[in-house]
C-alpha cells in the first residue's frame, strides 16, 4: 500500500501510512477559525456553528438554559476570542475562554463555551478524517449502554410505569430513571407519597432485572433525603440523584454517608475545583458532568481523570437529543470510567430528526458510536434557518 495525502494545499499535510498511523506535516499556514455563529432555535435548542478558512464546518450544542443569554455570551464575549485562531490549539483556546471573561465567570459562560469547544473538536476530526472519539482516547467501547430517562413529574405513577415498560420492551433498555420530589422543593412532593409510589409502580412493571435510578433535582433536606432514600433502597434503586440542593456539598455528603445506595451529583457544575471538592468530601458516589454544560470534552476528560483517582464512576448528564447525545456517545466511548448506562432523554422532540440527519438509534439498550469524521453527523442547515428564533 502507498501513502495517501490529504489536507489544504498551503497548510498541513496528513500522511496516512500503510500501517494505519497518521503523520501530520505542518506547513507555514494552519487552519484558522473565520466565523462563529450561535442559533437560538425553537423548543429550547441552542446550536453553534464554526467555519474555517479552508471551508470546514464544525457544529456544537449548548445546554438551553436561558438561550438568549447563552447566545449573547457567544456573540459578545467568546466569538472574538476564537476567530483567527487555530482550532487545534484547544487547551489554549479553552483556557482563554474561561479566564479572559473571568469577571462574569459562571455556569452560563461554561455552557456557552461548551458549544464552541464541541464544534472545535468536530472541525479537528473532519480535518484529520477521524471521528472525535478516536481523538479523545479511542474506542474503549463501541456500543454505549443508555438508560431511558423520564423528564416528567406531571404523570401518574401507573402511566409512568406503563410507558417505561413499553420502552424497555421496544428498545431493550436495561435501566430507567424517574423524577421524585419537587425541584428545590424543600421536602415537598407533587402529592403525599408520590415519590415512593412512582418507584414502586415502575419496579412492579419492570421486575427485578431492570435498574431504576431516581432524580430528586435538589428536592430534600438531609434528614428527609435519608428517610426517602432508605425507603427507596428497599425497592432496589440503582442511584439517588441530587437528593439535596446541589449547592450544598455537605448536605449531599451526609446523605451519601447514611445510605447504601450510591448518590449521584454533578450535572449543574462547571468549576473543576467544585468537582474536586465534591469527590474529596464524599458528596457523590457517581459523578455526572454534562458535556454541553461543563465546558466541553476537555473539561469532562479532566473530571473523569479526577473520578478515576477517587474510583468514582462517571454517568454523563444529558437531556438534548441531537448534538448533546452525539457528544455524550463520543465521550462515553473513549472514557473507561463511563461504566454504567448513560442518560438518554425519552421525551418526544418535535424536530430532532429534521435538525440532525440520521440520528443513531437505541438497539438492545445501546447506541453505536458514529464512525464518520468529526462528530459523525450532518446538520440540516435549512432546518436551522427555519427554526431560528429571530
Q: Please give the CATH class of the largest domain.
A: Alpha Beta
CATH architecture of the largest domain: Alpha-Beta Barrel
**What's the helix count?**
14
* Biggest sheet architecture: 8 strands, mixed
- Give the name of the CATH superfamily of the largest domain: Enolase-like C-terminal domain
Task: Give the uncertain stretches in residue-range form.
Answer: 1-11
Strand content bin: 15-25%
Distance between the termini: 53 Å
Question: Do you know the CATH topology of the largest domain?
Answer: TIM Barrel
- Work out the helicity level: 25-40%
Report mean pLDDT, rounded to a whole number: 93
Number of strands: 16
Order of helices and strands: EEEEEEHHHHEHEHEHEHEHEHHHEHEEEH
Looking at the structure, what is the overall shape? globular
Compute the CA-based radius of gyration: 21 Å
Count of folded domains: 3
Question: In a nutshell, what does this entry contain?
Answer:
39% of the residues lie in helices and 18% in strands. With 390 residues, it is an alpha/beta fold. It has 3 domains: 30 residues, no CATH class; 97 residues, Enolase-like, domain 1 (2-Layer Sandwich), CATH 3.30.390.10; 251 residues, Enolase-like C-terminal domain (TIM Barrel).
Task: Outline the structure in words.
This protein has 390 residues and is of the alpha/beta class. The chain has 3 domains: 30 residues, no CATH class; 97 residues, Enolase-like, domain 1; 251 residues, TIM Barrel (Alpha-Beta Barrel), CATH 3.20.20.120. 39% of the residues lie in helices and 18% in strands. The chain contains 14 helices and 16 strands. Strands 7, 8, 9, 10, 11, 12, 13 and 15 form an 8-stranded mixed sheet that branches. A 3-stranded antiparallel sheet has the order 1-2-3, with no helix packed on it. The protein has a 3-stranded antiparallel sheet with strand order 4-5-6. β10, α8 and β11 form a beta-alpha-beta unit. α1 packs across α3, α2 packs antiparallel against α3 and α5 packs parallel to α6. The protein starts with a strand and ends with a helix.
